[in-house]
Every structure is written in C-alpha cells, then in structure tokens.
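> example.struct
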C-alpha cells in the first residue's frame, strides 16, 4: 500500500459503529477534538444489534445495565420497556445515542475496512476500504465486536438447498415469515435457544437439530418494573460503579457461600429461589464456587437437569435435552423464555445429531444418519468465528510488514486485550485477552474506550507519537489469562471461547476470566506506572513504560 495514493490524513480511524465504535467516536472527536473517521459495514449504527435481528433476539443483561453510563442525562432520559432489552429496542437506543451526540456525521456506512498497514517512516496507519477509500491515521481503533463473523458450517450440499436459508447473525431486515412452513434450526446456543420458541409458534413444523444439549435458565422476562427503574435512576452512578468493580459487569452483591458448605435442603432452596428469580442471578447470586469448583458445579448442573426432566413431558425427549458432556457454565450460560416447554408442542421435533450426525443438506432438506427431513426454511444458529474472525478478515500489517493474522496463527496474543506487540498505535476495544464476552459488554466497552482515550491524551500531552505493547508484557499477560482460565470450568467444554467451534482454529482460551473489577485494577495500575508494559516513543526518543 503506497502512502502517496492516500487521499486524507486523519488523527484517528475507528472500525465499527456499535456500542464501542459510537463511544470511541464520541471520545476522540468530542473529548480529544481529533479528526476521526468511522467506517461501518452496515447501513446504520448498532453493530451486533444491527445484524442479529432473528426472532426473539434480546440481551441477557437487564436493560437498566445494558447502556452507556458516560452521560448522566442520557441515563436519566432513556426509558426501557422490557426487563431484558429486545433487539429493536437496543437498536432504537443506539440510534438515539447517535442522534443525541450527532455521531453519524463522521461515520461512513456500507463500508468495510479491508487493509491497514503501519508505515514506520511517518508512524501512521494507511487504511483501505472496499469502497476505494484510502486514508492515513495516527491511531487505529478496532471496535469490530467479538461475535461479528458469522459461521455457517461447511456441510456437504449446503448451497444446493432450494428453500430459504438464514444465519441468525445476518437476519433480513424485513423479517422472515414462518407461517405454514417446515423449518429446521441447526444450533442450540444463545441464538438458537432464543429463536426456537418464537419460530415454533409460527411454523407449521419445527425440527431442531441439536449437537450439544444445553443448560439454560429461565429469563423471567417481562415488562420493566417501573418502580424498580425509578429507584435505580435515583442511585444510578453508585449502581453502575458497583458493576464496574464486579466480576461480570453487573451490580449483584457478591455471594460468599459455598455450594458445598450447606445442607442438601438449604442448597435446593437456594437453587430453587435463584431459578425463580431467573437470568444470570442463578449463576452470580447462588453460590460463589459454581464456576470454579467441579463438585460445587455438579450440584448446580444436577439441579438444572432435574428441571429439564420436570418440564419436558416426553421422557425420551427430556433425556436428549439433558446435558451430560460438560458442566454448567463451561459454555456461555444461556437464558431462555419457554425453551424447554417448546419441546412439549406437537409441531416441534428434536433431532439428536450428536448420535446421528447430519450427512448432507439436500435440495429439499437435511439428511442425517437417521433419515431425511423435508424443509422449506433452514435457520443456521451456528454461531461465529469469535474474537479473532473479524480481525483475520482485515489485512492488518504492523512494523516490518508483519501480519496480525500470522502472529495470531497459534491463538491471539495481546497485552490486556488492548494492544499487540509489533502493531503500534493500534488499539482494540474488547479485544481477545480482555473480559469482554464474559462481562456485561457496555461496562467493559466504556472502560476500554476511556483507557484508550486516556492513553492517547497522555501521548499528546507528552509530545509523543507512538505507543506499542512490549513483547515481554504481552507474554506475561497471555500466560496470566491462561493460568486463570485453567482454574475455571471453561476448559471443560468445547466452546467458542476456546475456538472449538471452528475447524482448525487453535484451542486457546480467548477472553480474560479474572473479572472486570480485577481487570480494571490492573489497567489502572499500568496507567499509574506510566503505561507499564508499553513503549512510548516520540519521533526519535523511546521511553520505556
Ligand atoms: O452461537 P453458539 P450463538 N453442526 O456458538 C451448533 C452471544 N449471543 O449464535 O455446541 C451442528 O453459542 C453448536 O453446537 P455445539 C453469546 O455470547 C448473546 O448461539 O458446538 N451444529 C451450538 O449449538 C453467545 O454465546 C445473546 O455442539 C453446529 C450452535 O450451533 C454467542 O453470541 C444472543 C455446527 C452455536 O452456538 C454465540 O451464540 C445471541 C455444526 N457443524 C448470541 N456448528 C444474548 O445476549 C455449530 N453448531 C441473549
């Protein structure tokens, strides 16, 4: 990429206009007064919530916590209607934020960044898009989401299907009419578990193709409790602050009791109460050791299994739905509305593809080892090439022409999930190695955006040009992420956290499982120690942090 052909020189380029890109844009443009260009692949803001419009799509964090906290008035004026925010409402919220802060004027929509090369002569990123833009920028910030590269498995005959087919993460904007249709859903992760009950109500018949049975907790979704929300708003700052220092980015009081230190009756009572409260409280507000002690976890896993057997009337179907090959919360915990009940409907059939795998997709349906299922519509709820997939789709080259995708061939290598050695002035919002997907995302996004703008402000105030993660700091951080992950249940399942859903992807635990509070503390320490673990340079003089 030759810099002479670049058309515009900017202070910063941001890739993506979801939660992360919108706030990064605000901080760079409004707080730091920098010339900033945002490129966004969709034709509107919203990121994940722009693309994932499948029926039943909503967030698993309660609405009062699934929002920005950087502007007091914004927090006070927005009124959520659902206990959990539904996709259309989150998209309306993000459009409201874009309008309120006039954020669209420097976002170019329908544009994908295809390449970003660091030019060491001028310490600038040279950036190209699929629309022919060529710009340079001092700073490049990726706000590309962790789950933005959809994955449709390479099943033989996939393209031969004559009916309609959709991936949940690229859903048509005008919806899909399932009325009178024979529908097949492949996949029972969050997207499958949310969409299956809704599709079942409309379809003539629904076949669910399940490879792994799942633990899922009832959401107890409903309209928002207005009185509760009014109380929250009186104390919003303090509530949000609690979330910032928590494990998962939610303001729940930490529990100190162990599942192994109470009587069987007491344990059941706690689980039953948590089950009735629903949502993530089952995990965060029952016993502290479910996520880290296998024997404690067994009690939670067994409780959920007993609930599945209670809800699903046909015992054979119930047994197929009972997860036995991984512990609860070793994959992403799921929150549902009527998921297991759905299997009591006459128009729903569970197809166990663990024991009779899919052989091929035919022009008229799906063939498994057990038989052929005639279908009009196939829904792929088959997930994403998580955390690294979207990075790999961009030709990112750092110092000496080194490619990020080559550096990460054995798994992502970052310092704090914010930067990668050899890629100066490239900052990642919720990159691999940060709590990101293990947390309530807006809390993590705000922390990253504020850390990055603080770092840029620091460089500016010191008259410096370049900030780059040191290799040693990166190696130590990656080792620490792995060490913490080894102590959790996460290593005991084949999940996208480990890249296990993508054939050939290295099995490496990608997010940081130490909690957002501990992580925030570490980032603050790094800052206070003069950006320890980063090298800061002026045009000529290196300063080691
Ligand atoms: O994807 P997934 P998702 N043949 O990877 C199956 C976030 N999210 O889109 O478990 C047959 O979890 C696969 O089976 P298995 C959230 O972080 C959040 O549902 O690999 N089946 C699995 O059942 C979530 O974790 C929200 O054996 C195949 C499913 O497809 C993440 O996004 C809502 C297959 C994929 O599940 C991803 O969720 C939605 C194959 N070849 C998403 N390949 C909320 O906040 C895959 N599968 C509510």
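> example.seq
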């Amino acid at each position: 990429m030759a810099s002479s052909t670049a058309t515009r020189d900017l202070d910063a380029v941001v890739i993506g206009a979801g939660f992360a890109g919108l706030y990064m844009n605000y901080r760079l443009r409004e707080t730091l007064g920098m010339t900033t260009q945002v490129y966004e692949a969709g034709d509107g803001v919203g990121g994940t919530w722009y693309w994932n419009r499948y029926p039943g799509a909503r967030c698993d964090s309660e609405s009062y916590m699934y929002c920005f906290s950087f502007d007091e008035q914004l927090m006070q004026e927005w009124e959520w209607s659902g206990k959990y925010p539904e996709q259309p409402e989150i998209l309306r919220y993000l459009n409201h934020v874009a309008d309120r802060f006039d954020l669209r004027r420097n976002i170019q929509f329908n544009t994908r960044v295809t390449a970003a090369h660091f030019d060491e002569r001028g310490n600038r990123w040279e950036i190209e898009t699929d629309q022919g833009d060529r710009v340079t920028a001092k700073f490049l910030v990726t706000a590309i989401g962790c789950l933005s590269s959809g994955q449709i498995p390479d099943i033989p005959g996939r393209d031969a299907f004559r009916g309609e087919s959709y991936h949940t993460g690229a859903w048509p904007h005008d919806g899909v009419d399932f009325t009178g249709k024979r529908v097949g859903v492949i996949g029972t992760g969050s997207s499958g578990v949310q969409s299956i009950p809704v599709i079942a109500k409309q379809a003539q018949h629904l076949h669910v193709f399940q490879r792994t049975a799942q633990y899922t907790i009832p959401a107890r979704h409903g309209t928002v409790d207005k009185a509760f929300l009014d109380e929250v708003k009186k104390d919003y700052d303090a509530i949000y602050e609690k979330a910032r220092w928590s494990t998962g980015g939610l303001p729940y009081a930490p529990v100190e009791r162990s599942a192994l230190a109470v009587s069987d009756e007491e344990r059941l009572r706690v689980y039953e109460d948590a089950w009735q409260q629903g949502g993530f409280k089952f995990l965060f507000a029952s016993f502290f050791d479910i996520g880290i002690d296998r024997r404690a976890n067994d009690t939670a896993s067994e409780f959920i299994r007993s609930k599945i057997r209670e809800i699903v009337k046909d015992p054979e179907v119930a047994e197929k739905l009972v997860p036995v090959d991984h512990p609860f919360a070793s994959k992403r915990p799921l929150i549902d509305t009527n998921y297991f009940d759905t299997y009591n409907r006459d128009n729903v059939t569970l197809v166990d593809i663990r024991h009779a795998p899919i052989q091929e997709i035919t022009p008229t349906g799906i063939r498994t080892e057990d038989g052929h299922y005639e279908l009009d519509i196939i829904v792929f709820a088959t997930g994403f090439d998580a955390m690294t997939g979207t990075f790999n789709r961009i030709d990112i080259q750092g110092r000496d022409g080194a490619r990020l995708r080559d550096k990460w061939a054995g798994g992502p290598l970052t310092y704090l999930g914010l930067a990668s050695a050899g890629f100066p002035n490239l900052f990642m919002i919720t990159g691999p190695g940060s709590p990101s997907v293990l947390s309530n995302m807006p809390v993590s996004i705000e922390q990253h955006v504020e850390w990055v703008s603080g770092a840029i402000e620091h460089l500016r105030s010191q008259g410096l040009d370049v900030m780059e993660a040191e290799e040693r700091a990166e190696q130590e951080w990656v080792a620490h992420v792995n060490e913490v992950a080894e102590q959790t249940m996460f290593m005991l399942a084949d999940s996208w956290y480990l890249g296990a859903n993508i054939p050939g992807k290295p099995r490496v635990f990608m997010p940081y499982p130490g909690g957002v509070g501990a992580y925030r503390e570490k980032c603050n320490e790094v800052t206070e120690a003069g950006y320890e673990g980063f090298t800061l340079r002026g045009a000529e003089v290196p300063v080691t942090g």
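> remarks
Residues 58-60, 147, 153, 168, 186-192, 194, 211-212, 332, 353, 381-384, 437, 496, 501 surround 3-acetylpyridine adenine dinucleotide (CB under 6 Å).
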